[in-house]
User: What shape does this take?
Amino acid sequence: MAKYTIRFSCGHEEEKQLFGPQKDRERWIAWAEREGVCSACYRAQKPAGVLSVGSNGGAIEFRIRDCFAIKDSLRERGYRWDGSRKIWTKSFGYDAARKAEIREQLLQEIQGLEALGVQDEDHYGDTLRKLIQE
Assistant: This one.
């Protein structure tokens, strides 16, 4: 175990305590200098939340996880906390007769979520992708 001051690829320096054999520590330091980012830059790169899309009883369901920082904004947008799954959810009814209206509503919701810093997990799922592209 030893403490090292490391200059990460982002240009910032940070003191890290490393464990293990010397060659493993040297390998990790070389990687951090070449590709790693400091703790502050890592936190800044982290998305505000992660969106996945699924279906729930014939409705399209948006599911957002890892989003504590924006929970109040999600609540204002009509999302509900599902404590059993530990995610925020919002359902959009699907009716083929109202496809254009629903498509526009979903696109607006996605744009609003992206403005909050939410990133998609699965490119909005096959169901949603088909609906948006038609």
Notes: The chain has a mean pLDDT of 87.
